Amino acid sequence: MECTGGYPQDGVPPLEGVAGGGTGYGWNDDGLHGSNLFGGSVDPTKVPSRDLLHVWCMPSTANVGPQETPRSLENISLLAARNERESIQIAVRPKVSWGRPGIAGIIQVHCTDLCSASGERLVIGQAVTLRHVVPLLGVPDALVPLDLPVSQITLLPGETTAIWVSVDVPAEQSPGQYGGEFIITAMKEKAEISTQLLAKDEKHQIFRELRNCIDVVESIEHKPTENVGERLKSISTALKRVILYPTFSEISSDNDGPMDMIEDDALTTLSVHLRLSVTVWDFVLPRTPSLPAVFGICETVIEDRFGVKHGSVEWYEALDQHFKWLLQYRISPFFCRWGDSMRVFAYTCPWPADHPKAEEYYSDTRLAAYAVPYAPVISGSDAAKDALRKEVDILKTKAHWKKAYFYLWDEPLNLNNYNSVRNMSSEIRTYAPDARVLTSYYCGPSDAPLAPTPFEAFVKVPSFLRPHTQIYCTSEWVLGNREDLAKDIIAELQPDIGEEWWTYVCMGPYDPQPNWHLGMRGTQHRAVMWRVWKEGGTGFLYWGANCYEKAMIPSAEIRFRRGLPPGDGVLFYPGEVYSSLKEPVASVRLERILSSLQDIEYLKLYASIYGRDEGLVLLEKTGVYLGPERYTLEHMPIDVMRGEIFHTCRSRT
Amino acid sequence: MECTGGYPQDGVPPLEGVAGGGTGYGWNDDGLHGSNLFGGSVDPTKVPSRDLLHVWCMPSTANVGPQETPRSLENISLLAARNERESIQIAVRPKVSWGRPGIAGIIQVHCTDLCSASGERLVIGQAVTLRHVVPLLGVPDALVPLDLPVSQITLLPGETTAIWVSVDVPAEQSPGQYGGEFIITAMKEKAEISTQLLAKDEKHQIFRELRNCIDVVESIEHKPTENVGERLKSISTALKRVILYPTFSEISSDNDGPMDMIEDDALTTLSVHLRLSVTVWDFVLPRTPSLPAVFGICETVIEDRFGVKHGSVEWYEALDQHFKWLLQYRISPFFCRWGDSMRVFAYTCPWPADHPKAEEYYSDTRLAAYAVPYAPVISGSDAAKDALRKEVDILKTKAHWKKAYFYLWDEPLNLNNYNSVRNMSSEIRTYAPDARVLTSYYCGPSDAPLAPTPFEAFVKVPSFLRPHTQIYCTSEWVLGNREDLAKDIIAELQPDIGEEWWTYVCMGPYDPQPNWHLGMRGTQHRAVMWRVWKEGGTGFLYWGANCYEKAMIPSAEIRFRRGLPPGDGVLFYPGEVYSSLKEPVASVRLERILSSLQDIEYLKLYASIYGRDEGLVLLEKTGVYLGPERYTLEHMPIDVMRGEIFHTCRSRT
After folding, report:
1. ipTM, 2 decimals?
2. In this protein, which residues make up the domain named Glycoside hydrolase 123 catalytic (chains A, B) (predicted)?
3. Which residues of chain A are within 8 Å of residue B206 when distances are taken between CB atoms?
4. pLDDT tens by residue, B495-554
5. What is the DSSP string of B256-280?
6. Rounded to two decimals, what is the model's pTM?
7. Are the Cβ atoms of A6 and B375 closer than 8 angstroms?
8. Which of A503, B237, B286, B465 is at a distance of 20 to 30 A from B196, taking alpha carbons?
9. What's the order of all strands across the beta sheet hosting B161-168?
10. DSSP secondary structure letter of residue A22
C-alpha cells in the first residue's frame, strides 16, 4: 500500500507552530509531567499525593466554596488563649482524577496530637477536631464532623473541598508551643468497595465450592470405605483453590489482620504533610462570658422535626441536648415560642425552679443570663399567677438570680403591646422588685408618638417603659451606619438603677453591615460583636438559632422560612440531615459568632489594662473595625489585633 | 421530689401561641407526616420514594444546578423526527436524608425500552441513554454516562441532581407513538458497600476456618485411621458454619444467583414512576447536514493530555476516536494546530489521500465538509509542494471533492497576513482551479484600509481577496445587534462563482447575544444556529471543541485557558476526568448545538414547502428568534415551533 500521499515524510501530518492550541495554551503549565503519571491511569500508591492534589490553608473567615482556586501550601501557626477555640480551614482540590467513576478520588486525612516540647498534648478528637464544610444554597456553611484521627473524604472533579480544623484549648492547658501535623494522602479505593459488585459472582462460586465440599464430606461419612483418599484429595484441592480466590488475596499476602489506616512508611512518604503549630498563651478566657449573648431555640421546631410530644421524657431530653450543645458557644440559650402579636414565651430551663435540673442549669458558670418563664401566658388565672410567684420566690433567693431576666414581648409596636409589657412587668415586680425585664424593640408605640420623629420616639422608649423594663434591647438596624446615635440611646438610660443597653440583629441590618446571613463575608459575620463592643452595648439577643421551616422528620431537608434572608434565625442544623449523628451540626456562622465573642474577651482584657479608649484605638489602627460599613474584609488584621493583645498583655493576665 | 414549681400543671412549660416559631413557620408544610417516617430513621424499603424524593422534569435548555427548586411531576411527551436526537432532563432532590453519613441517600434509576402498540422498540442503551449532569465552575455542563438500564446515583442533602435523557431515533424507525417509563427508587444501601469494612473481620475468620479444614483434611490423608469420623465431622461442621456467615446470607436465602436490580414488586410499588412518550414522525433528518458546521479539534491538546507521540499508532487512534465521536453531532470535524500570526494548519483526515482511511473519512455521508491539509506550512520546499500537489490530484477526481476546503489562516489582520493567504491560495488553485479556500476574518488589513470606516473595510474584504477565497467566514461579533448588516456582506459576494458566506463565534459576541459560553442560558446556546439560519449564512466554523488548558495526564483537572470566557473553545471533556471511560464526555452546550443544527433541518423542511419567508415568519411568530438580542428565554416556544412544523409538514416529507 502506498501511503505517502499528501505529506512530505512518513505520511504523517507535519508538526508546525510554536504551541499549536491557539490562544494562551500552556500559560499555566503545572509541571505534572512525571513518568509515573504520563499517559496511563493514576495509581496513588505510586506517586506523591502532591502531584494529585492541591492542598492549602484558608482562615476561618473565608467562605471556601467549590470554585475556590488553589494557593500555595504554607504551614499553619495559630495563637490561642486557654479556654479558647481557634479554627482554620484546609482546602483540597484534585489535580487529576484517580478514583472510581463520578468522583476524582478519595483522600485520607490523618491528624496527630499536638505536642509541646515538654510532652504535653492537645489531643486529637478532644482538643483538635475536624469537620467537613458542606454548602447550603451553594454557600459553604454546615460543619459535618469527620472521623478522628483518620477520616476519608471524597473529592469531585474540579471542586475544592474544605476541612474545618478547630483547636479547643482546655482552661488548664500549660502555655507554650504545641506542634502536630496533618497527613493528607490520595487513596487507592479499597478493593472491597470498588470491586465488591464484581466479586459477587466470586462469592457465589465460593459458596458453591463449600457446599460441594460439605456434600463430599457427608458422602465419606456415609460410605467410609470407597475412594476416601480421592475424595479427601478433592476437598483439599477445592479448599486450597478457594483460599486463593482474590477475595482472600490480601489476607494471604499480608496476613496481619484487619487494617484500615495507612501506616505504611512507604505510603506516608507519598503524603502531603502540613505542620500545625499553636501558641497557647497564659490568658484564660473567663468561663462566664463577659457579654451575655442570649439566643433563642424554638421548641416547636424541635417538637415537630423530632416528633417529641410536649412535656414527654423525649421532649425534655431533646431540649436538654440543645441547651448543652449551644452553651459550648459562649451563648446563653433560651427556649421560645411565639404567640399572638409577637408575645413571646421564653425560658432557659424546661424544668421548674424546684427541680434539681433547674439548679444545674441556672448555676452553670458558662451561662451568663437566663430567661425565667412568665407562666401566666395563657390567661391571668390564679393558678398561673401562683405558679409564677412560686417560681420567682425560689429563684430570687439564689446567687444566680442576678443572671435572671424576663423576656415577655418581641418588638412591641403600639400602645396596646407596650401596655401588655407594663402589666406583666408590674406583676413580676410585685413578687421580686429587683426582677429584670428585657424588651426588644425598634420603635415607640405607633399610635401614641413619644416624639416628633421616629428616631426620637425610639430613643424615648426607656422614659416611657421605666420602671417596667431594665434591659432595653434595640435593633442595630435602627442605627443604620450612624454609630454615633448609640450615644443618644445610652444617654437616656439610668445605669444606677440597673438599666442596660443590649442590641440585636435579625432581618436587618442588611449588607454591607454586619449580620449573620448566609452569603455574607466571614468578617461581616464576625463584625457583629466588634460592633457591639465598639458601640458599648452590654448584652446581645438573637431571636432564633434553629428556626428552619417546618418539617416532621429529623432528616428532612433544611429549608429557610419564606420572607427571611437565608440563614436568618438558623445557626445550626439537625445532625440527622448529614449523618447518623444525633447532635446538631454547627454552621460556620456559629463558629464565627464564637470567635467574635472570644474577640470581646481579648478586647476586654486589653481595655482592663490600657483602658477602653486604647482598645478602641487598637480596633481602628489594625483596621479590624471602624464602623458598621468600615471593617476589614480580609482576615489578616484580626490576627494582627490578637497578636498585639497577646504581646502587650501576656504575663499581665 | 416536689416538681410543680413555676408551672400551673404537671411541671411542664405551657403550650402557647398560634404557631410558635415566629415569622412564617409552616407556610410550606410538605405534608410528610406519615407514621412510617415520623420521628425515627428512614427505611426506604418501607416508604414510598415520593415521600423521600422530589422528582420532576426540565427541558434540555434549562441549566439545572444544585439549587434548582422542585416543580410538580408531569409525564414527558417528546416529538422527534427520524435520525434525530431529542433530550430532556429529570431532576431529583432529596426531601429527607436516609443514607450513610455525608450523603442524603442513593437512588436507583431504571429506564425501560420505549415500545409502540405494534411492538416496535426504542431500545434502552441504544436509542435511549442517560447521563448525569455534572457542574463545571458551578455550572451544570458535563454529561457523564450512566449505567443502563439501571444505574445508581448519590444524592446530597439540599442539592438537586439532574439526569440528561436522550432519545436517538434511528433513520429506519417506524413513525408512531412509543412509550416507556422511568422507575426511580430510593435505595437502602447495599450491604456489600455499607458493611464491607465491618465484614473484613468476617473474611479473616472464614479464611482461618478454611485453612483449618485443609489442615484437618491433610491430617486425615496422613493418618487415615485415627478418628476419621470425628475429624470429618469437624470439617463438615466448620464448613456448614462458614456458609451460614452473613457474607453468604443472601445467597442461601434467595439462592437465585447474582441480582443487582430491584425487580421485587413490593419495592417497585414504592418507586416514583414517570412515563415517557415519544411521537416519532415520518420526517427523516438528512444524513448529510444541510448546513456544514466545521469544528476544530486541537491535536496538540490530545498529544499532551493523552501522551501520544505525533504520528504514532496511538496518535492515529486518538485522532480517529475524536473524529468519529464528534461526527455524531452533525458536525464536520477538522484537526488543527496554530502557528505564528494565527497561521493555522487544518486537516480533517490525519491519513494522506491515498490511504484507505482517507476515503472512509471523506466519503462519510455524515461529513458535510472537510479540510484538506495545506502541506507546505513549514516552508515552500519542493517536497512540500509535491506532497500538496499529489494530495490535491487524488482528491479532485473524487465525488466528495465538492465538500473539500482549505483553511489557511485564522483572522488575517494586515497586508502581510492577507498576502500570505493570497499566495497559498494561488498555489493551491494552480493544482485545482475549483479548490475552495475558507478565510475567517473580522476586519480588513489594518495597514491598508479598504474603506473609510472599519465596517466598510470589513465588507470590502471579498473584493480584496477574490479569487483567493471562496468561503468568506466572518465573526458574528462584527454585526453587533444589527442583523440587517448581514445584507451588506451578502451583497458583496458572487454566488455564481461559488462564493459563500459563513460565520463563526468565539470570544464574541458577548451576552446577551447567542454564543456557547458556560453560564449563558440554554436558549442562548441554541440561538447561535437560529441566528445563522435567519441571517442566511450557508456554513459555520468553530475554532475549537477541546481547547482546554495544557495538561499531561488524561485525568488531569479541566481548566479553561486564561483570557478566554469559560467554555469558549471547549465543547467536550476527556472522559478520564469523570470515570474510567476512554471516550469524550459531551457538554450540555454540545447537545444544544446538535439540537439547533436539527432545528435548521426542521426550518429547511418548512421553507422547502412554504418558502423561506414563511419560515422566518414562523421563527418570529412563535417567539423563538427575532434578533441577536431578542430570542426566547423559555423552552416552550421551541416546542411550539417544532410542533407547528410537524403538523404542517407531516405526510409531505
Report:
1. 0.81
2. 384-605
3. 248
4. 999 999 999 999 999 999 999 999 999 999 999 999 999 999 999 999 999 999 999 999
5. S----S---HHHHTTSEEEEEEEEE
6. 0.85
7. yes
8. B237
9. B53-59, B85-94, B161-168, B128-136, B139-145
10. S
